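Quick question, first post here. What does this chain look like in 3D?
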Amino acid sequence: HLVSSTLNTSIVKNVTDLFCGEHDFTTFTKYLVREPWKNPRRTIHECQFYQTTYNGFIKDPLYANISMWEFYIQSKAFLYHQVRKLVGTALSAGFGYLSLSDVKSMLDNPDPDRWKFCRLAPPGGLFLAHIEYDKKDFNAPISLK
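> Answer (accepted):
Ran it through. Tokens below.
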């Protein structure tokens, strides 16, 4: 996803710091109204925004002039659209559409209607990596009937 050079990466990094820890992420999901039994509390163990190096995976010389940045978000589980909304919120703050206090308020006062103040990040480029399972989750007998 390409963004303009007016992105304040320091603010984006500050926002990702706010996401770390246990929060009620109602503001950052879509389906809690239809699925009220789901617990919106999640713990973000790690949330980073960092510049990556161009490694030549795109064979276009114009890409040599582009700064590549990545979000890394680690958790045991995510809500529907949570990652895309977290990224969209961080970028909205980085472009100056939201303040750090706005984002903190979104976390401290969870409300699905508060989402209207920022955009959902596009799904392109989003990928799941480094999946780990606890083997204890697989020791229950399985019925094949």
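The two ends are 47 Å apart (CA to CA).
The chain has one domain: 9-128.
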